[in-house]
Amino acid sequence: MNQLLETSAAYLKCANKIVVFTGAGASSESGIATFRDALTGLWEPFDAQRLATAQAFKADPSLVWGWYEWRRAQAQSVLPNPGHAAVAQLGRLVSKITIVTQNVDSLHERASSENVLHLHGSLSSPRCFECAIPMDVPDVDGYNLGYGSRIEPPVCPECGGLCRPGVVWFGESLPLDVWEAAVAAVAECDVLLSIGTSGAVYPAAALPKQALSSGAVVIHINPDRVAVSSENEISLVGKGGVILPQLLARAFN
User: Which residues form the catalytic set?
Assistant: First the structure.
């Protein structure tokens, strides 16, 4: 493990352009349940994947909006973890860094990172379901939020449509401008750090493979070992909040 850390640190030290690609594991270290965790409490009868569709919102907007507002309140109640802090620190140490995240909690921004691309949207960016204009984020402190809370969505001031969460639901495409920016960053990076992602959600999971095909080094950081298929690919087993600070210490101290 120490040799792999040293090798990874050497790649980081020499890199001019880095992409940090994060998945649910990066946020779970802050105490945010992953999307695939079983729902509990009053949410237990519901299937998370069935709540995450346009059809579900049309059928029961107060239930879906209430669940996403509960998720947003949960995200606001936790703090960025040492992994988020290390990514922000890395951004101050290298020439160019692009953060591409599958997470919707904005913890990277709260850790002071910049240039964050949200592939799956953000809980902090709701929009009108009908006309798609951005809408203000309600104050969660005004809610009595709990499992199973039904909350009526705000009404769009422009068209009277209902406000929807600013996330990508099942059956929807990734935002094209964000996806194209992510692909462009991956194509020109020297190193891609893949942190806390299972590699199961496409098309996002294709980004590390695209980095390899462009000649970049890909470093996976995950509690479970990631199978590697290239000499330019390294698997570091552990949590991002533990491994990343060690990498930065070896590379830049």
Answer: 120
Question: Which residues are CB-neighbours of 219 under 8 A, at least 6 positions away?
Answer: 8, 11, 12, 191, 192, 193, 194, 233, 234, 236
Spatial CB neighbours of 109, under 8 Å, sequence gap ≥ 6: 116
Name the nearest CA neighbour of 69 among 178, 146, 156.
146
By DSSP bridging, strand 96-101 and strand 217-222 are: unpaired
**Beta carbons within 10 angstroms of residue 89's beta carbon:** 17
- For 140-173, how does the pLDDT look when each residue is reduced to its tens digit (9 = 90+)? 665 555 545 788 999 999 999 999 999 999 999 9
Judge contact between 106 and 80, C-beta under 8 A.
no
Q: Which are the contacts of 62, defined by CB distance < 8 A and separation ≥ 6?
A: 150, 151, 152, 153
Q: What are the chain's domains?
A: 1-31+80-121+173-253 (3.40.50.1220), 33-77+127-164 (3.30.1600.10)
Asked if the model's pLDDT at residue 200 lies above 80, the reply is no
Query: Could you tell me the pLDDT band of residue 99, with boundaries at 50, 70 and 90?
Result: very high
Q: Name, in order, each residue with C-beta under 8 angstroms of 209's C-beta and a sequence gap of 6 or more.
A: none
